[in-house]
Amino acid sequence: MKITNSLDKSKIKFVLLEGVHQNAVDILKSAGYNNIHYYKEALDGEDLIEAIKDAHFVGIRSRTHLSAEVLLQAKKLIAIGCFCIGTNQVDTEAAKCLGIPVFNAPFSNTRSVAELVLAEIILLMRKAVQANMEVHRGLWNKSAVGANEVRNKKLGIIGYGHIGSQLSIIAESIGMQVSFYDIENKLPLGNAKQVTSLENLLAESDVISLHVPENASTKNMINAQRLAQCKDGAVFINAARGTVVDIQALADALKSGKLRGAGVDVFPVEPASKDEPFVSPLCEFDNVILTPHIGGSTSEAQENIGTEVASKFVKYSDNGSTLSAVNFPEVSLPEHSGAKRLLHIHANKPGVMNQINQIFMNENTNIAAQYLQTDAQIGYVVIDVEADDVADTLAKLKAIDGTIKARVLH
Ligand SMILES: NC(=O)c1ccc[n+]([C@@H]2O[C@H](COP(=O)([O-])OP(=O)(O)OC[C@H]3O[C@@H](n4cnc5c(N)ncnc54)[C@H](O)[C@@H]3O)[C@@H](O)[C@H]2O)c1
Ligand SMILES: O=C(O)[C@H](O)COP(=O)(O)O
Hints:
This protein is an alpha/beta fold. It is about 30% helix and about 20% strand. It has helices at about 20-30, 45-50, 70-75, 90-95, 110-125, 130-135, 160-175, 200-205, 225-230, 245-255, 300-320, 350-365, 390-400, and strands spanning about 15, 35-40, 55-60, 80, 100-105, 155-160, 175-180, 195, 205-210, 235-240, 260-265, 290, 340-345, 365-375, 380-385, 405-410. Helix 1 runs parallel beside helix 11 and helix 5 crosses helix 7. Its EC number is 1.1.1.399, 1.1.1.95.
Protein backbone atom coordinates (compact mmCIF):
# COMPACT_ATOMS: atom_id res chain seq x y z
CA MET A 1 0.00 0.00 0.00
CA LYS A 2 1.32 3.45 -0.91
CA ILE A 3 1.17 5.89 1.97
CA THR A 4 1.54 9.62 1.50
CA ASN A 5 5.01 10.99 1.96
CA SER A 6 4.01 13.60 4.50
CA LEU A 7 0.98 15.33 5.86
CA ASP A 8 -0.16 18.37 3.91
CA LYS A 9 0.13 21.53 6.02
CA SER A 10 -3.59 22.19 5.64
CA LYS A 11 -4.30 18.85 7.34
CA ILE A 12 -2.11 19.57 10.36
CA LYS A 13 -4.52 20.61 13.09
CA PHE A 14 -3.51 23.03 15.83
CA VAL A 15 -5.70 23.41 18.91
CA LEU A 16 -4.82 26.46 20.99
CA LEU A 17 -6.52 26.78 24.38
CA GLU A 18 -6.64 29.38 27.17
CA GLY A 19 -6.51 32.44 24.91
CA VAL A 20 -2.83 32.25 23.99
CA HIS A 21 -1.56 35.45 22.39
CA GLN A 22 -2.67 36.22 18.83
CA ASN A 23 1.00 36.26 17.86
CA ALA A 24 1.01 32.49 18.07
CA VAL A 25 -1.78 32.29 15.48
CA ASP A 26 -0.01 34.78 13.21
CA ILE A 27 3.26 32.84 13.37
CA LEU A 28 1.58 29.54 12.56
CA LYS A 29 -0.33 31.12 9.66
CA SER A 30 2.76 32.78 8.23
CA ALA A 31 4.44 29.37 8.26
CA GLY A 32 1.56 27.99 6.18
CA TYR A 33 -0.51 26.40 8.95
CA ASN A 34 -4.12 27.54 8.70
CA ASN A 35 -5.96 24.68 10.37
CA ILE A 36 -6.01 26.41 13.75
CA HIS A 37 -8.76 25.93 16.34
CA TYR A 38 -8.61 28.71 18.91
CA TYR A 39 -10.32 28.63 22.32
CA LYS A 40 -10.32 31.49 24.81
CA GLU A 41 -10.89 29.20 27.77
CA ALA A 42 -9.31 26.12 29.37
CA LEU A 43 -11.11 22.83 28.75
CA ASP A 44 -11.36 19.70 30.81
CA GLY A 45 -13.08 16.30 30.86
CA GLU A 46 -14.95 15.23 27.74
CA ASP A 47 -14.74 18.73 26.23
CA LEU A 48 -10.97 18.57 26.30
CA ILE A 49 -10.83 15.07 24.84
CA GLU A 50 -13.28 16.02 22.09
CA ALA A 51 -11.26 19.13 21.20
CA ILE A 52 -7.89 17.41 20.98
CA LYS A 53 -8.77 13.88 19.81
CA ASP A 54 -7.68 14.57 16.21
CA ALA A 55 -5.24 17.42 16.89
CA HIS A 56 -1.59 17.24 15.83
CA PHE A 57 -0.44 20.14 18.02
CA VAL A 58 -2.02 21.33 21.27
CA GLY A 59 -1.17 24.64 22.94
CA ILE A 60 -2.19 25.27 26.56
CA ARG A 61 -1.33 27.49 29.52
CA SER A 62 -1.32 26.50 33.19
CA ARG A 63 -5.01 25.60 33.61
CA THR A 64 -5.42 22.74 31.13
CA HIS A 65 -4.41 19.36 32.53
CA LEU A 66 -3.06 16.86 30.05
CA SER A 67 -2.95 13.61 32.01
CA ALA A 68 -1.79 10.25 30.61
CA GLU A 69 -5.46 9.26 30.19
CA VAL A 70 -6.23 12.36 28.15
CA LEU A 71 -3.08 11.98 26.04
CA LEU A 72 -3.99 8.39 25.19
CA GLN A 73 -7.18 9.70 23.54
CA ALA A 74 -5.24 12.14 21.35
CA LYS A 75 -3.96 9.56 18.88
CA LYS A 76 -2.60 12.03 16.32
CA LEU A 77 -0.78 14.31 18.74
CA ILE A 78 2.72 15.27 17.56
CA ALA A 79 3.67 17.94 20.11
CA ILE A 80 2.40 19.92 23.09
CA GLY A 81 3.21 23.57 23.74
CA CYS A 82 2.85 25.07 27.21
CA PHE A 83 2.48 28.78 26.51
CA CYS A 84 3.93 29.50 29.98
CA ILE A 85 6.87 28.39 32.15
CA GLY A 86 5.38 25.61 34.26
CA THR A 87 4.85 22.19 32.66
CA ASN A 88 3.52 20.45 35.79
CA GLN A 89 -0.01 20.45 34.26
CA VAL A 90 1.18 17.91 31.67
CA ASP A 91 2.17 14.30 32.33
CA THR A 92 5.46 14.89 30.52
CA GLU A 93 6.73 11.33 31.08
CA ALA A 94 3.58 9.84 29.56
CA ALA A 95 3.87 12.29 26.66
CA LYS A 96 7.46 11.23 26.05
CA CYS A 97 6.57 7.54 26.00
CA LEU A 98 3.90 8.37 23.41
CA GLY A 99 6.56 10.17 21.33
CA ILE A 100 5.23 13.66 22.06
CA PRO A 101 7.72 16.40 22.89
CA VAL A 102 6.55 19.14 25.25
CA PHE A 103 7.76 22.69 24.64
CA ASN A 104 7.41 25.74 26.90
CA ALA A 105 8.64 29.32 27.18
CA PRO A 106 11.20 29.02 29.97
CA PHE A 107 11.86 32.71 30.53
CA SER A 108 9.43 34.85 28.52
CA ASN A 109 7.43 35.89 31.60
CA THR A 110 10.32 35.94 34.08
CA ARG A 111 10.52 39.73 34.24
CA SER A 112 6.75 40.10 34.70
CA VAL A 113 6.74 37.81 37.74
CA ALA A 114 9.79 39.49 39.26
CA GLU A 115 8.24 42.96 38.85
CA LEU A 116 4.96 41.91 40.49
CA VAL A 117 6.83 40.37 43.42
CA LEU A 118 8.96 43.46 43.90
CA ALA A 119 5.86 45.67 43.91
CA GLU A 120 4.25 43.42 46.52
CA ILE A 121 7.35 43.47 48.71
CA ILE A 122 7.32 47.28 48.80
CA LEU A 123 3.57 47.54 49.44
CA LEU A 124 3.64 44.93 52.21
CA MET A 125 6.73 46.38 53.90
CA ARG A 126 5.03 49.80 53.88
CA LYS A 127 1.77 48.39 55.31
CA ALA A 128 0.17 50.05 52.29
CA VAL A 129 -2.03 47.03 51.56
CA GLN A 130 -3.77 47.31 54.92
CA ALA A 131 -3.90 51.11 54.65
CA ASN A 132 -5.59 50.79 51.28
CA MET A 133 -8.27 48.49 52.69
CA GLU A 134 -8.83 50.81 55.67
CA VAL A 135 -9.15 53.97 53.59
CA HIS A 136 -11.62 52.19 51.29
CA ARG A 137 -13.70 51.55 54.39
CA GLY A 138 -13.44 55.23 55.43
CA LEU A 139 -10.77 54.82 58.13
CA TRP A 140 -8.02 57.52 58.05
CA ASN A 141 -5.32 55.70 60.08
CA LYS A 142 -2.22 57.82 59.31
CA SER A 143 0.64 56.05 61.06
CA ALA A 144 4.29 55.03 60.54
CA VAL A 145 4.03 52.09 62.92
CA GLY A 146 4.99 48.86 61.18
CA ALA A 147 5.87 50.63 57.91
CA ASN A 148 9.43 50.26 56.61
CA GLU A 149 11.61 51.07 53.63
CA VAL A 150 12.99 48.05 51.82
CA ARG A 151 16.48 49.56 51.62
CA ASN A 152 18.97 47.44 53.62
CA LYS A 153 16.32 44.82 54.38
CA LYS A 154 17.11 41.16 53.84
CA LEU A 155 15.40 39.35 50.99
CA GLY A 156 15.55 35.53 51.11
CA ILE A 157 14.81 33.85 47.79
CA ILE A 158 13.94 30.15 47.68
CA GLY A 159 14.75 28.84 44.19
CA TYR A 160 17.38 30.89 42.35
CA GLY A 161 16.41 30.07 38.77
CA HIS A 162 15.25 32.48 36.08
CA ILE A 163 12.73 34.32 38.27
CA GLY A 164 14.60 34.13 41.57
CA SER A 165 17.80 35.51 40.05
CA GLN A 166 15.94 38.24 38.11
CA LEU A 167 14.22 39.31 41.34
CA SER A 168 17.60 39.26 43.07
CA ILE A 169 19.05 41.78 40.60
CA ILE A 170 16.19 44.26 40.73
CA ALA A 171 15.80 43.98 44.52
CA GLU A 172 19.50 44.69 44.96
CA SER A 173 19.24 47.72 42.71
CA ILE A 174 16.88 49.30 45.26
CA GLY A 175 19.16 48.46 48.17
CA MET A 176 17.97 45.09 49.45
CA GLN A 177 20.45 42.50 50.69
CA VAL A 178 19.80 39.22 48.93
CA SER A 179 20.43 35.66 50.08
CA PHE A 180 19.08 32.57 48.39
CA TYR A 181 18.57 28.88 48.95
CA ASP A 182 18.61 26.43 46.04
CA ILE A 183 19.19 22.68 45.80
CA GLU A 184 21.70 23.37 43.00
CA ASN A 185 24.92 25.28 43.32
CA LYS A 186 24.15 28.58 41.57
CA LEU A 187 26.26 31.52 40.44
CA PRO A 188 25.17 34.41 42.71
CA LEU A 189 24.44 37.56 40.71
CA GLY A 190 25.51 40.96 42.04
CA ASN A 191 26.20 40.70 45.77
CA ALA A 192 23.70 37.92 46.45
CA LYS A 193 24.81 35.08 48.70
CA GLN A 194 23.84 31.43 48.47
CA VAL A 195 23.09 29.77 51.81
CA THR A 196 23.02 26.04 52.40
CA SER A 197 20.41 25.99 55.15
CA LEU A 198 16.77 26.82 54.45
CA GLU A 199 16.26 27.22 58.19
CA ASN A 200 18.92 29.94 58.37
CA LEU A 201 17.50 31.72 55.33
CA LEU A 202 14.04 31.79 56.93
CA ALA A 203 15.40 32.96 60.28
CA GLU A 204 17.41 35.84 58.81
CA SER A 205 15.12 37.23 56.09
CA ASP A 206 12.76 40.21 56.39
CA VAL A 207 11.11 39.04 53.18
CA ILE A 208 10.84 35.48 51.86
CA SER A 209 9.95 34.87 48.22
CA LEU A 210 9.33 31.44 46.70
CA HIS A 211 10.46 30.62 43.14
CA VAL A 212 10.67 26.85 42.99
CA PRO A 213 8.81 24.57 40.56
CA GLU A 214 6.02 22.20 41.57
CA ASN A 215 7.54 18.77 42.10
CA ALA A 216 7.82 16.09 44.79
CA SER A 217 10.63 17.95 46.60
CA THR A 218 8.65 21.20 46.86
CA LYS A 219 5.23 19.87 47.87
CA ASN A 220 4.29 21.70 51.09
CA MET A 221 7.95 22.69 51.55
CA ILE A 222 6.63 25.69 53.47
CA ASN A 223 4.59 24.20 56.31
CA ALA A 224 3.87 25.12 59.93
CA GLN A 225 7.37 24.10 61.03
CA ARG A 226 9.06 26.21 58.33
CA LEU A 227 6.81 29.20 59.02
CA ALA A 228 7.72 28.98 62.71
CA GLN A 229 11.38 29.32 61.67
CA CYS A 230 10.67 32.67 59.95
CA LYS A 231 11.77 35.94 61.51
CA ASP A 232 8.93 37.56 63.48
CA GLY A 233 7.17 40.12 61.29
CA ALA A 234 8.50 38.74 58.00
CA VAL A 235 6.75 39.29 54.69
CA PHE A 236 6.01 36.12 52.72
CA ILE A 237 5.47 35.88 48.94
CA ASN A 238 4.39 32.90 46.86
CA ALA A 239 4.20 33.40 43.10
CA ALA A 240 5.53 29.89 42.34
CA ARG A 241 2.92 27.16 42.70
CA GLY A 242 0.11 26.72 45.23
CA THR A 243 1.20 23.22 46.22
CA VAL A 244 4.49 24.53 47.62
CA VAL A 245 2.81 26.10 50.66
CA ASP A 246 0.51 24.58 53.28
CA ILE A 247 -2.14 27.26 52.91
CA GLN A 248 -3.78 26.62 56.31
CA ALA A 249 -0.39 26.90 58.03
CA LEU A 250 0.15 30.21 56.20
CA ALA A 251 -3.28 31.45 57.36
CA ASP A 252 -2.38 30.45 60.94
CA ALA A 253 0.94 32.34 60.75
CA LEU A 254 -0.91 35.44 59.56
CA LYS A 255 -3.59 35.13 62.22
CA SER A 256 -1.04 34.81 65.02
CA GLY A 257 0.85 37.87 63.76
CA LYS A 258 3.98 35.82 63.10
CA LEU A 259 4.02 37.25 59.59
CA ARG A 260 3.59 40.95 58.76
CA GLY A 261 1.76 40.13 55.54
CA ALA A 262 1.80 38.00 52.44
CA GLY A 263 1.48 38.20 48.68
CA VAL A 264 -0.04 35.08 47.12
CA ASP A 265 -0.61 34.60 43.38
CA VAL A 266 -0.98 30.82 43.24
CA PHE A 267 -3.17 28.43 45.22
CA PRO A 268 -3.48 24.68 45.83
CA VAL A 269 -6.89 24.82 44.16
CA GLU A 270 -7.56 27.55 41.60
CA PRO A 271 -10.95 28.24 39.98
CA ALA A 272 -11.10 26.91 36.43
CA SER A 273 -12.73 30.12 35.18
CA LYS A 274 -14.21 33.38 36.43
CA ASP A 275 -17.57 31.64 36.77
CA GLU A 276 -16.27 29.63 39.73
CA PRO A 277 -15.91 31.37 43.10
CA PHE A 278 -12.50 31.69 44.73
CA VAL A 279 -12.44 30.30 48.25
CA SER A 280 -9.40 30.48 50.52
CA PRO A 281 -8.61 30.84 54.24
CA LEU A 282 -6.49 33.84 53.19
CA CYS A 283 -9.47 35.92 52.06
CA GLU A 284 -10.11 37.30 55.55
CA PHE A 285 -6.77 39.13 55.89
CA ASP A 286 -6.32 42.81 55.05
CA ASN A 287 -2.55 42.38 55.06
CA VAL A 288 -2.52 39.82 52.25
CA ILE A 289 -2.37 40.61 48.55
CA LEU A 290 -4.32 37.97 46.66
CA THR A 291 -4.00 37.85 42.88
CA PRO A 292 -5.56 35.33 40.45
CA HIS A 293 -2.38 33.68 39.14
CA ILE A 294 -1.38 36.72 37.08
CA GLY A 295 2.37 36.70 37.72
CA GLY A 296 3.03 36.11 34.03
CA SER A 297 -0.04 37.91 32.74
CA THR A 298 1.32 41.02 31.06
CA SER A 299 0.98 41.97 27.41
CA GLU A 300 4.73 41.83 27.00
CA ALA A 301 5.08 38.36 28.49
CA GLN A 302 2.12 36.89 26.61
CA GLU A 303 3.37 38.30 23.31
CA ASN A 304 6.86 36.90 23.87
CA ILE A 305 5.48 33.53 24.92
CA GLY A 306 3.18 33.36 21.88
CA THR A 307 6.14 33.96 19.60
CA GLU A 308 8.46 31.57 21.39
CA VAL A 309 6.22 28.53 21.67
CA ALA A 310 4.58 28.91 18.24
CA SER A 311 8.09 29.16 16.71
CA LYS A 312 9.04 25.92 18.47
CA PHE A 313 5.93 24.26 17.00
CA VAL A 314 6.87 25.44 13.50
CA LYS A 315 10.48 24.34 13.94
CA TYR A 316 9.44 20.87 15.08
CA SER A 317 6.80 20.50 12.37
CA ASP A 318 8.93 21.84 9.50
CA ASN A 319 12.38 20.75 10.55
CA GLY A 320 12.13 18.13 13.33
CA SER A 321 14.11 20.14 15.89
CA THR A 322 13.33 19.25 19.52
CA LEU A 323 15.74 21.83 20.90
CA SER A 324 14.59 22.95 24.38
CA ALA A 325 11.83 20.32 24.69
CA VAL A 326 11.42 19.66 28.41
CA ASN A 327 10.82 15.89 28.19
CA PHE A 328 12.56 14.70 25.06
CA PRO A 329 16.00 13.95 23.62
CA GLU A 330 17.08 17.30 22.16
CA VAL A 331 18.06 17.26 18.50
CA SER A 332 19.03 20.53 16.83
CA LEU A 333 18.95 20.27 13.06
CA PRO A 334 20.16 22.18 10.03
CA GLU A 335 17.90 22.82 7.01
CA HIS A 336 17.27 19.72 4.91
CA SER A 337 16.98 21.22 1.42
CA GLY A 338 17.65 18.67 -1.30
CA ALA A 339 17.07 15.68 0.98
CA LYS A 340 14.05 13.92 2.41
CA ARG A 341 14.00 13.97 6.21
CA LEU A 342 12.63 11.01 8.12
CA LEU A 343 11.92 11.20 11.83
CA HIS A 344 11.76 8.07 13.94
CA ILE A 345 10.91 7.95 17.64
CA HIS A 346 11.40 4.57 19.25
CA ALA A 347 11.79 2.70 22.50
CA ASN A 348 15.46 2.82 23.48
CA LYS A 349 16.22 -0.88 23.29
CA PRO A 350 18.94 -2.90 21.57
CA GLY A 351 18.54 -3.57 17.85
CA VAL A 352 16.24 -0.72 16.80
CA MET A 353 18.96 1.42 15.21
CA ASN A 354 20.39 -1.65 13.55
CA GLN A 355 17.01 -2.41 11.94
CA ILE A 356 16.63 1.19 10.82
CA ASN A 357 20.01 1.26 9.13
CA GLN A 358 19.39 -2.15 7.60
CA ILE A 359 16.41 -0.72 5.71
CA PHE A 360 18.57 1.88 3.98
CA MET A 361 21.29 -0.66 3.28
CA ASN A 362 18.82 -3.07 1.67
CA GLU A 363 17.30 -0.24 -0.40
CA ASN A 364 20.78 1.00 -1.34
CA THR A 365 19.66 4.48 -0.27
CA ASN A 366 22.40 6.90 0.68
CA ILE A 367 22.04 8.48 4.14
CA ALA A 368 23.14 12.11 3.74
CA ALA A 369 23.05 12.80 7.47
CA GLN A 370 21.85 11.09 10.62
CA TYR A 371 21.20 12.67 14.02
CA LEU A 372 20.45 10.57 17.08
CA GLN A 373 19.75 11.46 20.69
CA THR A 374 18.50 9.09 23.35
CA ASP A 375 17.53 9.02 26.98
CA ALA A 376 16.77 6.05 29.21
CA GLN A 377 13.35 5.44 27.66
CA ILE A 378 13.34 6.64 24.05
CA GLY A 379 15.52 7.35 21.06
CA TYR A 380 14.89 10.07 18.48
CA VAL A 381 16.70 9.65 15.19
CA VAL A 382 16.49 12.00 12.22
CA ILE A 383 17.68 10.69 8.87
CA ASP A 384 18.24 12.80 5.75
CA VAL A 385 18.25 10.64 2.65
CA GLU A 386 19.00 11.22 -1.00
CA ALA A 387 15.82 9.76 -2.45
CA ASP A 388 12.83 11.13 -4.34
CA ASP A 389 10.14 8.96 -2.81
CA VAL A 390 10.39 7.63 0.73
CA ALA A 391 6.83 6.38 1.16
CA ASP A 392 7.87 2.72 1.22
CA THR A 393 10.81 3.49 3.49
CA LEU A 394 8.50 5.25 5.93
CA ALA A 395 6.16 2.26 5.97
CA LYS A 396 9.12 -0.04 6.73
CA LEU A 397 10.32 2.27 9.50
CA LYS A 398 6.86 2.26 11.06
CA ALA A 399 6.85 -1.55 11.04
CA ILE A 400 10.00 -1.85 13.17
CA ASP A 401 9.28 -3.34 16.59
CA GLY A 402 9.72 -0.57 19.18
CA THR A 403 8.58 2.26 16.88
CA ILE A 404 6.56 4.90 18.71
CA LYS A 405 6.12 7.41 15.90
CA ALA A 406 7.62 7.98 12.46
CA ARG A 407 6.99 10.68 9.91
CA VAL A 408 8.58 12.39 6.96
CA LEU A 409 8.90 16.14 6.64
CA HIS A 410 7.76 18.39 3.83
N1 LIG B 1 2.78 33.12 39.14
C1 LIG B 1 2.99 32.93 37.87
O1 LIG B 1 2.24 33.37 37.00
C2 LIG B 1 4.22 32.20 37.44
C3 LIG B 1 4.86 32.57 36.25
C4 LIG B 1 6.00 31.90 35.88
C5 LIG B 1 6.48 30.86 36.65
N2 LIG B 1 5.84 30.50 37.78
C6 LIG B 1 6.35 29.41 38.63
O2 LIG B 1 7.62 29.79 39.09
C7 LIG B 1 8.46 28.66 39.07
C8 LIG B 1 9.91 29.10 38.97
O3 LIG B 1 10.13 29.66 37.68
P1 LIG B 1 11.61 29.82 37.11
O4 LIG B 1 11.46 30.24 35.70
O5 LIG B 1 12.43 30.65 38.00
O6 LIG B 1 12.10 28.31 37.16
P2 LIG B 1 13.59 27.80 37.09
O7 LIG B 1 13.50 26.36 36.72
O8 LIG B 1 14.43 28.70 36.28
O9 LIG B 1 14.10 27.90 38.60
C9 LIG B 1 13.64 27.07 39.64
C10 LIG B 1 14.76 26.97 40.66
O10 LIG B 1 14.27 26.25 41.79
C11 LIG B 1 15.29 25.38 42.23
N3 LIG B 1 14.71 24.30 43.00
C12 LIG B 1 14.04 23.21 42.56
N4 LIG B 1 13.64 22.47 43.60
C13 LIG B 1 14.05 23.11 44.72
C14 LIG B 1 13.95 22.83 46.11
N5 LIG B 1 13.30 21.74 46.55
N6 LIG B 1 14.50 23.71 46.98
C15 LIG B 1 15.16 24.81 46.54
N7 LIG B 1 15.30 25.12 45.23
C16 LIG B 1 14.75 24.27 44.34
C17 LIG B 1 15.96 24.92 40.93
O11 LIG B 1 17.25 24.41 41.17
C18 LIG B 1 15.97 26.22 40.14
O12 LIG B 1 17.13 26.98 40.38
C19 LIG B 1 7.96 27.87 37.86
O13 LIG B 1 8.25 26.50 37.98
C20 LIG B 1 6.49 28.11 37.87
O14 LIG B 1 5.86 27.08 38.61
C21 LIG B 1 4.73 31.15 38.20
O1 LIG C 1 3.91 28.70 34.53
C1 LIG C 1 3.72 29.87 34.25
O2 LIG C 1 4.34 30.46 33.35
C2 LIG C 1 2.75 30.65 35.05
O3 LIG C 1 2.16 29.88 36.03
C3 LIG C 1 1.77 31.40 34.23
O4 LIG C 1 0.80 30.57 33.71
P1 LIG C 1 -0.40 31.18 32.81
O5 LIG C 1 0.14 31.41 31.44
O6 LIG C 1 -1.46 30.15 32.84
O7 LIG C 1 -0.80 32.45 33.44
